[in-house]
Structures are given as structure tokens and as C-alpha cells.
């Protein structure tokens, strides 16, 4: 035999149930986060390259990863 649904039986239980229903926010659909930091079509990878090659691209400062990408695109004849 199935148990009947649990319902508040005392005045305190009824008041707590009403308070909870009145103060609880309805659940909203989760917000999907847009990853604007990573451009579309690029992927983060791990790549082993020689120290002198890395130093060459890092000499000019910020943007060294883009310069390596450009050199690889040129070498792969993708430009």
C-alpha cells in the first residue's frame, strides 16, 4: 500500500510551508556562458618547441602566440 503524500498537519508546519512557497524563487534555466576570451576557431593546445624558437617569437613581447600561429599558417600554405 502506497503512503499518502506528506502534508503539514500542524499549524506551524502549514505556516512554514506557506512561507517557503512565498519566499522561494522559481528555478530559472541556467544561463549559458559565452567564452569571449577565446576567439572562435582556435584551440588551446600544448606544443613542445625549441627554447631558441620560443625566445625568437617572445622577443617582441605580447602577441608571440599570434606570431607563431601566423608563421605556422604561412609554413602550411594556409594564407
What would your notes on this structure say?
- The chain is mainly α and 79 residues long.
- It has a domain of 37 residues.
- 42% of the residues lie in helices and 0% in strands.
- The chain contains 3 helices and no strands.
- The longest helix has 13 residues.
- The protein is rod-shaped.
Task: List key phrases describing it.
79 residues, mainly alpha
Low-confidence stretches: none
Please give the count of helices: 3
Global structural class: mainly alpha
Helix coverage percent: 40-55%
| N-to-C span | 73 Å
**C-alpha geometry:** rod-shaped
| Number of beta strands | 0
* Most strands sheet: none
Q: Indicate the mean pLDDT.
A: 80
The proportion of strand residues reads: under 5%
* H/E element order: HHH
Radius of gyration from the CA trace?
30 Å
Describe the secondary-structure layout:
Elements: H1 11-23, H2 51-58, H3 64-75
Give a brief description.
By secondary structure, the protein is mostly helical.
Amino acid at each position: 500500500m502506497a503512503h499518502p503524500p506528506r502534508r503539514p498537519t500542524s499549524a506551524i508546519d502549514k505556516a512554514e510551508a506557506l512561507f517557503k512557497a512565498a519566499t522561494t524563487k522559481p528555478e530559472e534555466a541556467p544561463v549559458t556562458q559565452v567564452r569571449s576570451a577565446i576567439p572562435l576557431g582556435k584551440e588551446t593546445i600544448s606544443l613542445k618547441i625549441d627554447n631558441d624558437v620560443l625566445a625568437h617569437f617572445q622577443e617582441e613581447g605580447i602577441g608571440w602566440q599570434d606570431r607563431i600561429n601566423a608563421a605556422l599558417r604561412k609554413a602550411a600554405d594556409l594564407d
